[in-house]
Design brief:
Strand content of chain A: under 5%
Oligomer: heterodimer
Distance between the termini of chain B: 37 Å
Radius of gyration of chain B: 16 Å
Shape of chain A: globular
Order of helices and strands of chain B: EHEEEEEEEH
Number of strands of chain B: 8
Strand content of chain B: 35-45%
Number of strands of chain A: 0
Largest sheet of chain B: 8 strands, antiparallel
Order of helices and strands of chain A: HHHH
Chain lengths: 93, 156
């Protein structure tokens, strides 16, 4: 296989793909950053409760416990989203 | 001026090159997998491909998960722009409890003073030795998905 390291640096304007068309045809899940923050915070809280730990512990375990669990992929993703929307929603400067 | 590695691109190109990268590596997947887009808000999307099972050049089965959080600039409605705002690429042995490697963008901790130092940087976790060996990365060193997949396919 040839390395394709330059592929993602292509700068030619492409026609929107089917995947993009489909995404653009749907409304965003949340109308505001505040709604998104509330939604993702609840998902993260629910996941932590399901795992039987607090959110901070879950994120710490997911980050560097050296253990792989399906839920840790989800936790890291939700952790990033909560942090991002917390910032966007103006809870933190 | 030199183009930055993870700079703004047109949204159509951004999505297209990611799809192409996955397609170009499809022959190494045990089951072809495609990206999924989630539009959280008008300005923030996620592009992800989870639980992709690869058979590497050495014949090892490795599970890969790719999650990219994308900032969208829709101000030009005819040519909206996109750039990676955060990302995580992970490689794991399927059915094993020990991860292999994971690349992360900086974390935005609620209390940065209590967070590990590497959270402030792009970084790589390498668990291959059984310990979490963390390497801080410059943003230009953070791999494209294609580079990450080549590493996974070559190393493991």
């Amino acid at each position: 296989m040839k390395p394709d390291k330059d592929l993602e640096q292509d700068r030619q304007d492409e026609e929107p793909s089917e995947l993009l068309h489909e995404a653009l045809s749907k409304k965003p899940l949340y109308a505001s950053n505040e709604e998104a923050l509330a939604g993702f915070t609840k998902q993260l809280d629910d996941l932590a409760a399901k795992m039987g730990v607090g959110v901070d512990q879950l994120l710490s375990d997911a980050e560097s416990s050296g253990v792989f669990k399906e839920e840790y992929i989800e936790a890291l993703m939700l952790g990033r989203r909560v942090a991002r929307f917390r910032k966007l929603a103006g809870e933190e400067t | 001026m030199k183009k930055l590695k993870h700079d703004w691109n047109s949204l159509a190109d951004y999505i297209s090159v990611h799809e192409k990268t996955l397609r170009r590596n499809e022959s190494y997947m045990t089951h072809p997998q495609k990206y999924v887009i989630e539009r959280h808000t008008e300005f923030w999307w996620t592009l992800s491909a989870k639980n992709i099972l690869f058979r590497t050049f050495k014949g090892t089965e490795v599970r890969v998960d790719i999650v990219k959080d994308i900032e969208i600039d829709p101000s030009n409605s005819r040519r909206p722009l996109a750039r990676t705002e955060s990302a995580s690429y992970s490689a794991n042995r399927p059915k094993a409890t020990m991860p292999l490697i994971r690349y992360c963008y900086p974390h935005f901790d609620r209390d940065p003073s209590k967070a590990p130092d590497h959270h402030r940087f792009h970084h790589k976790h390498d668990f291959a030795t059984g310990k979490d060996v963390i390497t801080k990365l410059d943003i230009e060193e953070f791999p494209h998905v294609s580079e990450f997949l080549l590493e996974v396919l070559s190393v493991f």
